[in-house]
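Hi X.,

You mentioned you wanted examples for the new student's onboarding notes, showing what a folding record looks like when two proteins sit in one file. Here is a clean example. The first protein comes first, with its sequence line followed by its structure tokens.
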Amino acid sequence: MYRDNIKKLVRLNLKMEKQETKRQHYVPETYLNKFGKERKESVFQVFVLNKERLKNPFTVNTSKICVETNLYTLDGHSEEERQLIENFYNKEIEQKYNAIYQLLTDDNVREVTLAQKELIIATAITLLFRVTKWLTSHNEFIGRVFEKGMQSAEQYGKDYFLFEGDKISFKGKSPKELVNEYAQKSKERNIITPLQVALKLIELKKSDTISVIKLEDESHSFITSDNPIALYNFKMRFFAPFDPDNIISMPLNSKYKLTIYPNDGIYKPEYISRIFHKGILAYTETMTNNVEQFNNAERFVIGDFETLNGFETFLKKAQNPVEIKEEKSKELEKILLISRKLGIIK
């Protein structure tokens, strides 16, 4: 059922590939390359920092991170059936990423076509739902549910409990083993459902407003992570990732960041808003993004050596802000003065 639904949703006319892809990126390699350096033709390296240790950033090829074996591979008799999801991400998103990246990082581009805009939004939203953190969090939740189910069943002298209408027998099994069995059984659903949700959300947000922030300050750099999409929603008390009113942000490289806002009617649909930051504004924007990426990350953050090497100190400063230095204080006074003249603040 799920496979039939996704075929209808994406309307793909896939050609057979010569070799099936086994190692599948949940954060596209073409995206990761923008945060690294090309060491030889088509081989890029990035610096990576383990989220738990925050020490000793190391280099790794982008082909070897944010990748799992058969992550999107479905059951099926043909290669086309097994590679349906992997081919969708590859053909419809990853192969087109360099083109939209060039548009977004070109300061002279102020308008895009509606098709280009929809592709930009689709890239961000599919990346939001394809990362493994959602699946990890879901399985952790299922693990807690199973533990409580086992405890409750044991109180009544039973070796099974009911979950989603199914009888779950745990005789001779640990909660971890039960979760692994459940994850394997529900793999196809857990792969296809997020893409179905993403496609619906793309349709709802394809008219949103696109904005790009650029850091014009060499001393500050954006980082990314194994879960690059950040979400905000100032309207909702309880946050939901599929809410069309969410603001979506995504660092594009060390100096550029994409933000997608719900359309408020101020800008025409094809317009790209561009913001250029220096000084204290660049520092604030960098701090916001980099703390976000650290908090969002499942296992590691990605960036340049200088930023990651001092990241532990940076986090301490971000969590315990110190008094603004004199030069930054003067910049802030100028901003406040201009804001008062424009009537933005009193």
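Then the second protein repeats the pattern, sequence line and then tokens:
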Amino acid sequence: MPSQRDVKNRIGAVKNIQKIARALELVAAARLRRAEQRIEALRPYADAIRRMTRQAAEAAGNVPQLPILQEHDQINRVGLLLIAGDRGLAGAFNSNIVRAGVAAGREHEADGHRPVYFSSGRRPTTSLTFRGLEPAESFTGFTDRPSYADARRIADRLMAAYVDNEVDKVEIFYNGYISPVSQEVRRETLLPLQQATLLDDEPEPERETRPPGGKSEPHALVDYEPDPEEILKRLVPDYVEISIFRALLESTASEHGARMTAMHNASDNASELIKNLTLEMNRARQAEITQEILEVVAGAEGLSG
């Protein structure tokens, strides 16, 4: 049985860890609220850009002759962007993304495609490197509070890789924010536009107009000036940037939520461990007192004899 001093030292160490966990939980909670506000402000704009891009693509019919809009004849290399965090202590937040990205890479390899990894965050970068899957490009240092400039930098690199035939398709993986205790790994196709996830959305309903004394006829929701092809050329880079920016913000909120939950659980576990160690210390103290009493009794019996 450990001595009373040893158990007391362990209790002190656990209490210090509990204080750190509580401090990290409070910091994550404060940052989470700000991240939630940024997501709430961005989602309507991001949805509008995606909807406009879809409508312009439908109205254009034939995709304009622009490299970023051209679907490659064959898919030989698939770019996989893994978005996670720079720091740990967030439960399975980072490992879930790496696991999903690596699994997708194996699927593409089984289909005869070569995966090309890109990473946002130090954790996925180091995890991929450890697995022998060196990222073609990594972006770090901003996961706590990403800016639109960070998203533009990533988007420019991915669009350049697609235009230069470095990759023939681009997919992104990130944690979608649902609540502080719930995040889901999302996988979206970003490029080419013909296969993009946004095209799977429900089309906007058409308004109907009824001319006087006539039948109702469908009326387009949008009139384009200039033509839809020119609008689409301008929208696609914005669509790529805003999609990545939204993924970054979702990932940031998910990271703070996961860290807050993980630190709350760590604090609760520390309380339970302190309780158990206190009982163990009391038993050690009781054993020492009992031993001292037995020694006194034995000494008294020896003197009386």
